Amino acid sequence: MGRATDPNSSVNNPRSGRTLIGGVAVIAMTLVLITSGTARAAWEELARFLSLSGDPEPASANVLSEHEIEVLDAMSPQQQAELLLERSINHYRGANEQIGARVGRWKTQIEMQGRLDDLFRIALNSGDLRVRAAAIEVNIVGRKLEKTSATVDRLEPAARTGEQGPRANALWDIGLLGNRGVGPARAAEILLASIHDPNVNIRYWAVEGLAYLGTDETIEPLLETLRDDPSPLIRERAACGLAQSGMLSERQRRRAVPRLLELSADGALDDETRKWVFQALRDITGQSLPHDTAAWTRWYETSRDARWNPVTRDQ
Question: Assuming Cys at both sites, which of 26, 80, 177, 304 could form a disulfide with 182, CB separation 3.0 to 4.6 Å?
Answer without folding.
Answer: 177
